[in-house]
TrEMBL record:
Pfam families: ABC_tran (PF00005), oligo_HPY (PF08352). InterPro entries: AAA+_ATPase, ABC_Ni/Peptide_Import, ABC_transporter-like_ATP-bd, ABC_transporter-like_CS, Oligopep_ABC_C, P-loop_NTPase. It comes from the Bacteria. The lineage of its organism: Bacteria, Pseudomonadati, Pseudomonadota, Betaproteobacteria, Burkholderiales. GO terms for biological process: peptide transport; transmembrane transport. This is Oligopeptide/dipeptide ABC transporter ATPase. GO terms for molecular function: ATP binding; ATP hydrolysis activity.
Amino acid sequence: MSGTVLTVDNLVAEARSSDGPVRLVDGVSFAVRAGRTLGLVGESGSGKSVTCLSVLGLPPRGVRIAGGRILLGGHDLRGKTPAELNTLRGREIGMILQDPMTSLNPLLTIGRQITEMFRYRDGIKSREEREARAIDLLRRVRIPAPESRLNSYPHQFSGGMRQRVAIAMNLACDPRLLIADEPTTALDITVRLQILDLLRDVQAERGTAIVLVTHDLHLVRRYCDHVAVMYAGRIVEQGPVEKIFARPRHPYTKGLLGAVPRLHGVQHRLTVIPGQPPLPGSIAEGCRFAPRCPRAQADCLSAYPATRELDEHRSVACWHLEPNEIAVDSLLATATL
């Protein structure tokens, strides 16, 4: 369970425009080990979803992967043919989307959609065997009375149950890597925790590597081992969750953590990050966060900062780091949800 499953190295993804290519993802690098979860966080438009879709070899329409390496178990996916990538999807890499109705066909029963995975991926011809496996999967994702739900349609399930079905379909081929792109955003907090508890149990059982894209930093604190903070197409800080949450070194990371409401203790006014993230294609020279940064100086506007390796598994891209002795006074450091 200790080996590296996914390595993304200097990934670049570009969109076409009338003024030339626009970089949506610009030199992103991270790694995920077996049995570990990486939290990918940042404001909307920071490039999180484009990064994940690029890993799958399915960048959005009009976007192309222009550089970098995507290594799955040491093999570069960028060198694979479309047919080879199609074979890897499902078998080696699964993806759980924010809205399970985008993964499920509303016109087909749940049983039909799950058993098709065994038919086309594993070549199981026996209908009885395929249905037995589907029932076992539904039971494992804690859907009550799975035998009676095979003939149900997606609209007959709640949002949480549909997400469990989507997880079951991803588990059908036992992938080494699961990408969960905001899988609980549309769910209430109780169901949200149930879904993520389920993913954690599956991970413990199978040693699956997980990339969790989310805006909810409480969930990152509770479920992730490592966190990468993205801003305007780049990773500005990454490292172990405990270190990042206790002592963020990038001003953007500190701003995100300071904007999270506290549930206990002394209440303080939430941090507000002024301004808006830059639009793709309008990014100026220098640090992309500089126009919103309280620590920005002249050198921040002239060149983008090189990524500094602070210690093992921790890095940050900033000319003027937050002092190491400053800890963020946040519930996130000790909270249990």
